């Protein structure tokens, strides 16, 4: 038999035996009635009809608040559904079509919808983890620390079990703006033409308000944090350690973990690989929080 035909015949069985089809995907679910085309989310569930009351990972994509899509999830849905999670990935409106506060509000609305409806998909509305990469890391940290956004959607911090921001550089926006503009003055402005000041607006009060570190305080119910970062990037390294420090000062469990031999994209895309050090940290963070009290 022709080798290509043999491969085509055998490949589906190899994939099934390796668990390549590990989850069921329900895509483009609206979380705002008659909303924008980006007011949609995807839900990945274990391929087990009887599965119910499973912990939920709510994921926010990156893209500099200007681009990106909920499909940018790499291995995470497969890895987490195999561990008994429901995985949700959300879209939201983007700059410059909307202002930053509208964008953040979209993410909170999406999580609010998940809290109200995820039981229909086998998820536990009282066990939600929040995560995100890059711009999504800033959004994940902010809505898990500044409770105004979720309160507006009728969601209490009591339902959040943990937060996993991945390689964000905007947990303290005034600091990153100061750093970027110092470099701009030092090296010239062409490579920094659309930086954080443009994205977050020219109002310094908004820079402070959109910074997760601003809103950290004891006894708010802020969940534990695992802050993943690539130490080769001085911005994400400094911001991860800054957020970790502020959380710990408020007696909120927090760990910043830097994965070497990686980069901004690969750190996110490798999450779910069994031999990946960040994945091991990820699971060690999630496992004790899934069934126990915060």
Structure description:
The protein is globular and about 55 Å long. The protein is built from 11 helices and 8 strands. The relative contact order is 0.12. By secondary structure, the chain is of the alpha/beta class. It has an 8-stranded mixed beta sheet, sandwiched between helices. The protein has one domain: 3-Layer(aba) Sandwich (Rossmann fold). The N terminus is likely disordered. β3, α2 and β4 form a beta-alpha-beta unit.
How many domains in all? 1
Q: Largest sheet, order of strands side by side? A: 1-2-4-3-5-6-7-8
Q: Quickly name the level 1 CATH class.
A: Alpha Beta
Q: What value does the average pLDDT take?
A: 89
Residue runs with pLDDT of under 50 for 5 or more positions: 1-21, 190-194
Order of H and E elements = HEEEHEHEHHEHHHEHEHH
| Number of beta-strand segments | 8
Largest sheet: 8 strands, mixed
Distance between the termini: 59 Å
| Total helical elements | 11
CATH topology: Rossmann fold
- Helix vs. strand class: alpha/beta
The radius of gyration over CA amounts to 20 Å
């Amino acid at each position: 038999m022709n080798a290509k035909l043999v491969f085509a015949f055998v490949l589906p069985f190899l994939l099934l035996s390796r668990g390549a089809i590990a989850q069921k995907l329900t895509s483009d679910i609206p979380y705002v009635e008659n909303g924008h085309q980006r007011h949609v989310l995807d839900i990945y569930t274990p391929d087990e009809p009887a599965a119910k009351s499973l912990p939920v990972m709510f994921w926010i994509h990156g893209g500099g608040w200007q681009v990106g899509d909920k499909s940018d999830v790499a291995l995470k849905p497969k890895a987490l559904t195999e561990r008994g999670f429901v995985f949700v990935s959300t879209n939201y409106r983007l700059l410059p079509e909307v202002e930053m506060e509208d964008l953040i509000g979209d993410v909170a609305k999406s999580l609010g919808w998940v809290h109200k409806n995820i039981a229909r998909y086998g998820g536990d509305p009282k066990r939600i983890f929040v995560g995100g990469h890059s711009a999504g890391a800033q959004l994940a940290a902010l809505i898990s620390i500044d409770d105004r956004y979720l309160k507006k959607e009728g969601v209490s911090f009591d339902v959040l079990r943990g937060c996993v921001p991945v390689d964000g550089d905007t947990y303290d926006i005034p600091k990153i703006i100061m750093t970027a503009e110092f470099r701009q003055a030092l090296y010239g402005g062409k490579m920094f033409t659309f930086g954080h000041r443009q994205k977050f607006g020219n109002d310094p009060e908004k820079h402070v308000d959109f910074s997760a570190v601003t809103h950290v305080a004891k006894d708010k119910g802020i969940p534990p944090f695992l802050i993943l970062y690539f130490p080769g990037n001085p911005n994400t390294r400094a911001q991860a350690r800054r957020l970790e420090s502020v959380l710990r000062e408020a007696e909120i469990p927090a760990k910043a973990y830097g994965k070497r031999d990686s980069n901004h994209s690969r750190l996110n895309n490798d999450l779910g690989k069994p031999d990946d050090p960040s994945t091991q940290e990820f699971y060690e963070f999630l496992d004790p929080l899934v069934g126990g009290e915060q």
